[in-house]
């Protein structure tokens, strides 16, 4: 093995460098998620703690955590080291956002590389890349918006294979960088969540609130009150709304709710899948089924969905503006952060948006004049307009006059008729005979 | 020797030019700057520590990291704003390219100037767009932010390929590799240059306008 060729001193150095690489990487990751802008000063004279010629502060708490898991003497044997970043709401819901992982690929090694010089400098570059990349993942923007009354960002350092299953569907994986050593290739990578939706079971109680029909009256809405109290993250609100929205979608405003009345054997309906059939169904069946309630519920759901979308996309902005002043650099960035978040949450709404095309269809039954449109059409078909012939009925005198005229005309043309008959009749006797 | 060359293409609004370019070049320079060298004796030197700071963009939904060196930032800002002004001065949608070139010097015989040999070039090609509504701006600041994220990831990828960089020099040759004029950091020698295609178009347009006007006034 290549490791055997490595001198004792080199091996010792490599191990020490790797250990500090792991410790500093953990510091960089955690510090980038504190929600504050980092600023470290250049130093002309490096001190003992300034590893890799990069001014990285050492937070004692993080150092303790990292050292705890890296307790072994051989750092390279302790890899992979993972730093997990998650979000925790005031309600106690958690969502894992990303997992950073420093691992060692033992198959790819470079025995020729110099430890003290090349490896050390490359570790420095790797950490610089880490500093730059930590500002690029979605969790960075979230972390800048955290607060004790909305959500906080938490971290967990562990040794072992990275756990990605909590990152939700469609998470992304990015390699920050790697470097070859005589014992293998050190690789730093991150896997991050792309769908910022808290799973529904956590927000079950919120959904019940959402379903209240008075929810969207601004003065009564408990949710809006909450938000005012705790200039809380609109991001979160957007997420919660997303959750409840997806749930309402699952309920199936058109399909599921309207289908139960359908099976009772209305074979007249030719197109059960067409949304319009659901418009007709409750009407036709309402007397026997006693389901006139169906309509108001549907309508409520529709208007709600519409409002939710608006909340998710637009309302975060005012809140953010109020938070702007408190932002340290006072520019518009936080607003954009939230916007991007709402954008991301609206991405997760993709399926919902498809359904929203149907919102146009709500007009026939949602509006107050719903019956007039459909009803008028129905009546028009049922009682067909009278033919124009019947509308222009001539008077009796006119009719009589007309008759005499006709008779006179027939009489005057008698000769012609006889002629025609004469032409026809000669054949008849011959045929019969 | 052929220099490595990377080109990034971005479509931005006029006011995003400075920040878009700065975020890319600062990230590159952060990777390509070392701590100040201090020579104890020939063959032995100590390296200072590079500090860094987060910079939030005003017109882009983005935060980048740069060396915490005011002088380096000033150098970059000066060059970039020259490019930005040239690009934005014309009315029509312009385009242009700004380059960050790393080079090393090679001593020449007196009286010739030392030769500059580039070894890495980073180009940013910008296409300007005009936006009319606030909504479009909002979409654009997010979009440019996302594009810059991709660029930063790509820069990290390139940096970790560990391709050629000039060898560490002796004390006497330090100035041939590094820019030692900064008090706090020591970047590899670099220079910035730009070209814009916008103004030439406009000047042609202006000439045509002038010609037509003159013809009409006759």
Automatic annotation (TrEMBL), chain A:
Tagged with keyword Coiled coil: yes
Keyword annotations of the record: Autophagy, Coiled coil, Cytoplasm
Start-end of Polar residues biased regions: 323-332
Coiled coil: 393-420
Domain Autophagy-related protein 13 N-terminal: 94-196
UniProt xrefs under InterPro entries: ATG13, Atg13_N, HORMA_dom_sf
Region of interest: Disordered: 315-339
The family this protein is said to belong to: Belongs to the ATG13 family. Metazoan subfamily.
Name of this protein: Autophagy-related protein 13
Organism this protein belongs to: Frankliniella occidentalis (Western flower thrips)
TrEMBL record, chain B:
Keyword Nucleotide-binding belongs to the record: no
GO CC terms, sorted: Atg1/ULK1 kinase complex; phagophore assembly site
Any Pfam family: ATG101
Keywords tagged on the record: Autophagy
Any one Gene Ontology molecular-function term assigned to this protein's record: protein kinase binding
Gene Ontology biological-process annotations: autophagosome assembly
Superkingdom field: Eukaryota
Signal peptide: none
Protein family according to the UniProt entry: Belongs to the ATG101 family.
PANTHER family on file: AUTOPHAGY-RELATED PROTEIN 101 (PTHR13292:SF0)
Name this polypeptide is given: Autophagy-related protein 101
Species name: Frankliniella occidentalis
